[in-house]
Amino acid sequence: MLSKLKRSSKRFLALLAILPMVVLILGTIYMLGMEYLEDSPRTFLQSIQWATETLTTTGYGADSRWNHPVLALFVIFGQFMGQFLVFLIFPLLVLPYFEERFEVRLQHALPPMTGKVLFYRYGPAIESLLEDFNSTGSPFVILEEDVELARNLRDRGFDVVFGKLVDDPQILARVNQAQAVVTNADDHANASLTLIVREHGFIGPLYALADDPIYRQPLIQIGATAVFTPSHVLGAALASRASTRISPPAEGMHLLGTKVGMAEFRVGAGSPLAGKKLGDLHLREEHGVSVIGQWYGGVFTTTKGPETRVQSGAILVAVGLHANLEKVERMAMPIRRSGPIVVAGYGAVGKKVAEMLHDAGEECAVIDRISVPGVDVVGNVLEQSILDRARVREASAVILALSDDSESMFATAAVRDYAPEVPLIVRVLRAPNTARLYRSGADFAISVGQVAGQILAYHLLKEQVMHVQNRIKFSRLSAGNLSGVHPWRSQALDQTGAKVIAVEREGDVLVEFADDFTLRPDDVLFVCGSTNSLERYQKAFQPSSAAAAS
User: Which residue of 76, 236, 407, 461 has the fewest CB atoms within a 10 Å radius of its CB?
Assistant: First the structure.
């Protein structure tokens, strides 16, 4: 019977048994001491009353002076024991017992699972995805093995089941009803869950998030439908953001040849561009440069008309003749695209980043606290001497692939202060910290939850996969419904966010347009924008696919 009780219940019962014994012992000693040391006898009941008052610190009444030093020391000991009882034993033993009695009990078996997704173990990789599930009203259950985390998740309103899978596989008795299963534990626990789930007759999709790609095939062999390694996908996203060799800044730019270029400019607080509207800057009319959009807070937004305001601290993406881009460089700070790429942190993500950069032929310097093969500079990224040795001020980009968000925030602020002009790309562990990293000075911050969430949302919520970065694309299209208008003076075109960069007419490619220039039906346009803005352009102007060259 006792073996089935919880630990807090056993402690409480032990306390109830010990307290009367302590009162009896103290009362008996006090009775004997008052009789033989103070020569002032007390009855047994009076002595028990004294012991009770002492232990509960409620007072003494008539017994408040003792002359014999031995008895006085005994009374002092009893007083301290009473304080110990109130301030230590009571909150440690009594309160946990009553909390367990009145708190909402955690579930210890799966509820009916029809139409629900089971997530095994909570963590940063599924944090963003669960927010999507909540926002769309998609039902799910979390099986968690950490009791404190399970209570926290329950208090946040999640449907949680607590239990140790290895000790009690029957927790998953209803898993065969589930719509899908996602396992997010360590690789060995993922394997155990996969086997147990299949043993219970689950035949639906089971997706595993693995730490190491070497476990992909074994997990599939024992029953996983698909295995993803979010940390490696995150490393690839970080590397591609830093290197144009891995992922070019704009798809299809080769269509314009070498005449037109694309550049990125950081808008400093003291820049004449900061805080101004594009319509007031007249960059296209006076400088022949089209601003495609701006990166601000890690989000790329296309410009939509002259009312678009250039944010201080943003990174502008502009297209135009190389000579014209140089004019705008004098108004803003150009982003350097030469020099080494510095990677701070050589864990699983950092190793993947460095591996991809080396494979792409990039010059790469790795900083880490531990001297292991692959680390070029050993030390703390917060120290200026370490940043000097890694040539951070000369870098084309800095990637912080640290494993702690607090450390990343501190390092972001330190690197931004040391090298304010260098693009700073930061790995985020927990998605809610992304905004804090931007406030610390990051140009781009990507979380493992964002990466894993996008992968799983495609399979579980049937959402279209969104790219981690909103890449810019050039398309060669017909004029369509834009015929008869000036390519830079169409409000409808501005609203799409796409820009006409050049016009091919009678074999010539025109990149600058006089005030009286109008588009002809047979013109071929070079249109630039994000994937979304180009989709809006297609809907608004319906360029003929037959006339558009591929």
Answer: 76
- 233-250 pLDDT, tens digit per residue, is 888 888 988 887 887 666
- Examine the pLDDT at 13 and tell me if it is beyond 80: no
Task: Give, to the nearest 10 degrees, the angle between helix 7-36 and helix 69-84.
Answer: 160
Q: Do residues 340 and 361 make contact, with C-beta atoms less than 8 angstroms apart?
A: no
In this prediction, residue 468 carries a pLDDT of 45
Q: Which domains does the chain have, with CATH numbers?
A: 2-102 (1.10.287.70), 117-228 (3.40.50.720), 341-460 (3.40.50.720), 472-541 (3.30.70.1450)
Write the burial class of residue 68 (CB in 10 Å: 0-12 exposed, 13-18 middle, 19+ buried): middle
What does the DSSP assignment read for 147-162? Answer: HHHHHHHHHTT--EEE
Please give the C-alpha separations between residue 362 and each of 15, 339, 358, 427, in angstroms, as whole numbers: 68, 9, 5, 19
541-542-546 Cα angle (round to 5): 135
Quickly state the pLDDT bin for 24 (edges 50, 70, 90): confident
Pairing of strands 117-120, 140-144: parallel
CA 475 to chain centroid: 34
Query: What distance in Å separates the CA atoms of residue 530 and residue 250, rounded to the nearest whole number?
Result: 9
Integer Cα distance of 49 and 51 in angstroms: 5
Average the pLDDT over each of 88-97, 233-242, 529-538 and give the range with the smallest value: 88-97
In the predicted structure, residue 62 carries a pLDDT above the cut 60: no
Other C-beta atoms lying within 10 Å of the C-beta of residue 40: 12
Mean pLDDT, rounded, for 353-381: 93
Burial (CB count <10 Å: 0-12, 13-18, 19+), residue 98: exposed
Q: What local confidence, expressed as pLDDT, does residue 471 receive?
A: 64
- 3-class SS string, 290-338: EEEEEEECCEEEECCCCCCECCCCCEEEEEEEHHHHHHHHCCCEECCCC
Average pLDDT over residues 345-360: 92
| CA 111, 113, 115, 119 torsion-angle sign | positive
Tens of pLDDT along 160-192?
Answer: 999 888 888 889 999 999 999 999 999 999 999
Closest by alpha carbon to 471, among 325, 293, 233, 311? 293
